[in-house]
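Researcher: For the annotation table, I need structure tokens for DUF241 domain protein. Please keep the output clean. Sequence:
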Amino acid sequence: MVGVFRRSLSFPNKNPNRPSQKPHISHHIRSISLPCRSHPLISEIKDEINGLRSWAATSKAQQQTSTTLSQGLTLLKDTHETLQHILNLPQTLESLRSHPLWLQNLLEDFLRFVDAFGIFQTSVMALKEEHSSAQMAIRKRDDSKVVAYVKAKNKISKEIENIVSVLRCVSLAQHQQHCTQQAPTSLVDAELRHVIADVMSVTVSVSAALFNGMAASFASRRLSWAQMVKLSRKGGRVKKDREGVEELRERDVVEMENLRNLKKKDDEEVRLILKKMRDLEERICAIENDTEKVLRALINSRVALLNLLTLTQ
């Protein structure tokens, strides 16, 4: 027996006196594709670039210490770690895909950064070894080895200062011209290119300030007899007329010992010198560790660029 199915009609339940739930839209409807907002990493790296520029400006205005050198290295490391994350974004691949020549220039300049900080790290390690040997010489009251330490320290300081010449080969003008002359394909493309160019520029300026500051901090200076007397009376510190800036710091202790006979000093004076030398060694070790982190960040950024180059080919 076949069942009988009744046909039913359904009408919309609308009240003619009630306005429609979706009123008629007479104005222009915008497209769903809104302007692309900046990626959070772009805003983050812009703040880090401004922090590096402030550090560089401050380092020119006042004498650098091991603390400020470590601070600059840490800021540079953080900036390049953020850049590495940006280089791994899909937007970056799309942006650099159409700029293979610029990508090649970035790779060459990052190689120069890696070379410069590799040499810098080697120099800092050599300085630490010489500093350890000098402490042993002071314990033994060996003036000849202290003199050798001062000479070796001066040589290392000059080597660090010469690293700046490697940075002069970085084509900053070419990076800036690429941002201004090449028409961007999108807002994201323009932002990425300007950010990368700014990172290259600030890396050069901050690295030069770091190398020059390190060379100046550990270079030997000749002390006058009046300065030596003041240094011995004030426990190793003499102030400049300008308030808050130290003219003579812990590093001047070794120069002073170079002019005087260690064998004529009593045990308390030697202990004071060794304490200052140990404190300075800790600061050198901190700079060495921070330099290693910067070098690792630069290498990782270059690896990210190499990956982009592989994907664009």
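Researcher: And a one-line annotation?
Model: Residues 4-12, 22-36, 222-229, 235-254 have pLDDT under 50 and may be disordered.
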